[in-house]
Amino acid sequence: MSDYTQLLIYVALGVVFGFAALVVPMLLSPRYKGEKTEQTYECGVDTIGSAWVRFGIAFYLFALIFVAFEVDILYLFPVALVFSEAAFGWRAFIEVAIFLVILSLAIVYAWRKGVMRWTR
Amino acid sequence: MGALELFLPEATILLGAIVAFLLSVVGVRYRITWMCSMVMAALAGVTTAMHLGAHGQPFFPGIYTVDALSQLLKLGIVGGLFMTLLASGKLGSVRSNVRVDVPIYLMVSALGMMMLVSATELLTLYVSLELSAYGLYILAALHTMRRQGGEAAAKYILFGAASSAVTLYGISLVYGGTGSTYLSAIAATSSPLELVGLVLALAGVLFKLAVFPFHAWAPDTYEGSPHQSATFIGTASKVAAVGVLARLIFLALPNKDELATVLLILCIASMTVGNLAAIVQRDIKRLLAYSTVAHAGYILIGLLCFSKLGVAAALFYVLIYVPIAFGPFLVVCVLGADGSNPTRASLAGLYHRSPLLALTLMVGIFGLAGIPPTAGFAGKWFLFTAAIEGQHFWLVVIAAVNVTISIYYYLSIIKDAYLTPSDDDSAIRLSPASAVAACMSIAMVLVAGFYPRPLWELAEQAAKVLAGG
Amino acid sequence: MTIHMWLLFALALFCMGLYATLVRRNLIAILIGIELMLNAASINFMAFNKFVASDPVVGQIIVLFIIGLAAAEVAIALSIVLAVYREHANIDVSDLEELKG
Question: Which of C62, C82, C90, C91 should we substitute to test contact with A (largest number of A Cβ atoms within 10 Å)?
Answer without folding.
Answer: C82
